[in-house]
Amino acid sequence: MLTQPKSTTINMGGGQPPITIGTGKLARQADGSVTVQCGNTILFATVVANKEPKPGQSFFPLSVDYQEKFASAGRIPGSFFKREGKLSDYEVLISRLVDRALRPLFPEDYFCEVQVIITLISSDKDILPDSLACLAASAALAVSDVPIQEVISEVRVSRIGGQFIINPTRTQMAESDMDFIIAATEENIMMVEGESKECSEEDLVQALQVAHNAIRVQIAAQKELAAQAGVAAKREYTKPYRNEEIKNKVYALGQQKLHAIATSASAKHDRSDAIKALGIEIAAEFDVETTPVEDLALIGHYYHDLQYDVVRNMILDERVRLDGRDLVTVRPLAMETDLLPTPHGSALFTRGETQSLTTVTLGTPQDELLVESAQTSDYTKFILHYNFPPFSTGEIKMLRGPGRREVGHGNLAMRSLKQMMPSAEYPYTVRVVSDILESNGSSSMATVCAGSLALMDAGVPVPKHVSGVAMGLISRASDGKYAILTDILGDEDHLGDMDFKVTGTRDGICGVQMDIKVDGLSMDVMREALLQARDARLHILDHMYATVPAHRAEVKPHAPRMEMLIIDKEFIGAVIGPGGKVIQEMQKVTGTTINIEEVNEKGEVSIFGSEKEGVDAAVKWIKGIVMVPTVGEVYEATVKSIMPYGAFVEFLPNKQGLLHISEVSWKRLETLEGVVKEGDVVKVKLTGTDPKTGKFKLSRKVLLPKPEGVKVAEGEDKGE
C-alpha cells in the first residue's frame, strides 16, 4: 500500500543550504527510513530492530554502517571488481561517529539486535556528508517505533576567520583552524571528535555551545517529522529475567571482599585474578541442584553490577582509585628514543601499565597514501597506523586486520600529530606506526606521546611536542556527586561514565575525542574536565621535553637523504627528457629517486637517496641541465671526441662546444695525441659564442700560466 511521503525543512542560517528530511517514500518495510538532503548531497538511512532478543543475549547488539556509493558522484570504483567492497577507513570513522552517539541512548535492558545503515546516494562536491550522517540515523529512529530514549543530532562546527560556522562547505573547510563534530541531545553533549590548531579550552567550550544550539534546531525538526508520520509511542520489548533475591545474596557475599580488592592498589592482572577468584567463590555458594538454571545465569550479571557499584562508590566517597592514586595524578612515566638501530626514528613510551613502541619511516612522494571517497581522491604524505595485538592485554586472539577501534584510535593520534607536521613543501612521506605492547587505559594517548618523540628522533622538523591524556567521569544521580579522573585505567573506562581524550601542545588543544555512556554531560563539568586535562597534558609534556628537547638537526645517516631544487618551468621537460630517458638515466646512475612537480609556475624537484654522494651527484646533474652557460665562467668538461682541429667537450649536461686545438695550450700543437683523449675531464672557460652559428667558444689555455716571451694579441684573454 502506497503511503503519502512526509518532509520537513531545516534552515540553519549563516548562508548554508537548507536541509530537508523526508520519509514514507523509500524502503517502507524497514522499521524507519528517511532521506536527508542538503544541496545535492542526499543520505538515505534505514533502521531495523528485531522484536525479540536472541536467547541468552546479555548485551545490546547495535551495528551502524555508513557507506558511500560511487555512483553518487558519477564515478566507477577503482577496485578490480569495479564495485564497492568493504568499508574504507573513512566510512568506518563516520560509522563510529554515529554509533558512539546513539548507543548510550537505548535502554540498559534492551537487548534486541538493531541495525542502522546510512548510504550516500547523491554527492555534492561542496557539501560534506559526514556531518549529516547522525541526523539521518536519528531521524530514521525518530520515525520508527524502535525504543531509543531521546532524539539526537550531530553537526560540524568550524572556526573560519575567527567565526564559528555550522556545517561549512568543503571550500570553507580549507581555511578552518578548528574542526569538530559534536553530537548532543536537547539537554546534553553526547560525543565530540575533532582537531584544532592549538585552540584554548575556552575556545572549545564556545564551539560546543554554538554546535548545541544548532543541534536543538535539528532535533525539533525530527520531532515534527515523527509527528507527521504518526509515531505515537515506542514499541514494548521483552525485559530480561531478573531476581532480586539472587542479587541480594551476591551483594551480601561479595561486597566487603570486593571492596578490599578494590582498595588494595594492586596491579591490573593481580586485581583481575582476585576478582575472578571471588566470583568463583560466590558462585560456589549457590546449590546447582536446587537453584533454577535461569537464576544461576544471573550470578555473573549481578557480580558485574557489584563491581560497578563498589568501584564507583569507592571513588566517589573515598576519592581513591583502583591503583591507589588520587583523582588528578598521572601514572609514572618512562620514555626512551633511538632504541632501534634501523628505523628512521623510534620511541618507547610507558605510562603505568600502558606502553607504545612507535617507529617513524621516511619515504618518497611515491609512498604517498591515496585516500578515496565517493567525491574525492586525495593523496596524503602523513600516515599513522595503530596496532593493538592481543598480548598487550595478556590475551590470545586471532591476528586479523585492524578493527574499527584500531582505525578510530589511530585516526585520533594522526589528527593530533598532524597539527605539528611541516607544510606541504616538506618532501618526505612520513609513516608513523604505533604497536601497543601493554594496555591498561588510553593506549591512543600513549601513541600520541610516542609518535611525537619518534618524529623528533627521526629529524622531522616538528616545532613542538604533542601529548595526550584520557579523562574519566564517575557520577551518581541519587546525590549529584561526581568525580573527574585524570589518566584513567582500563577498568575505570569500563566502569565509568566517560572517556574524554584531549591532546595538545603547551599552547593549546590539537585533538579531542569524547564518548559518554550516560545521558549527557553538562557544560560546567566539561569545562572542569578540560582544565584538569590541561594540567595533566603539561605534566607529560615536561617529561617529553626532558627526554627530547627538539627534533634532530638532520635525519639519521641510514635515512633517505633529500634535496629539493626549484627550477624554471621551461626546464621540466629537459630534466625528464624524451620519454623519461634523462630522468631514468639519472636515477639509475646515481641510485636516487627523483620526483618533479609543477607548482605555482615553477618546477619542484625532490631528490631522494640512501647515500649522500648519489644525492649530490643528482643535484649536480640537474643543476647542469637547467644552468644557462655564462660567458667568463669556468666549467669541468668531459672530452667526447677528438678531431684534427680540436676536441668536442661537454661542459654542461647536453651542452657541448669545440675546444679548438689552438685553445688547448700556449704551445703550438700539430695534433692532440698525447695531450688529451676521450673521457678526459679538463677545465675550460667559456670565452664567448659564435655570432653567426651560436656555437660555444671554449678555451683551456687561458686557464694555464702564460710562458714568458709569449705575446698576446690585442683583445685576446691574458689568462689567469
Automatic annotation (TrEMBL):
The keyword Metal-binding applies. It catalyses: RNA(n+1) + phosphate = RNA(n) + a ribonucleoside 5'-diphosphate. One of its GO terms (molecular function) is polyribonucleotide nucleotidyltransferase activity. Residues 632-701 form the S1 motif domain. Its main location: cytoplasm. Keywords: Cytoplasm, Magnesium, Metal-binding, Nucleotidyltransferase, RNA-binding, Transferase. Its EC number is 2.7.7.8. It is found in: Cytoplasm. Its cofactor is Mg(2+). It is an enzyme of class 2 (transferase). InterPro entries: ExoRNase_PH_dom1, ExoRNase_PH_dom2, ExoRNase_PH_dom2_sf, KH_dom, KH_dom_type_1, KH_dom_type_1_sf, NA-bd_OB-fold, PNPase. PROSITE patterns: KH_TYPE_1, S1. Belongs to the polyribonucleotide nucleotidyltransferase family. This is Polyribonucleotide nucleotidyltransferase. It comes from Polluticaenibacter yanchengensis. The gene is pnp.
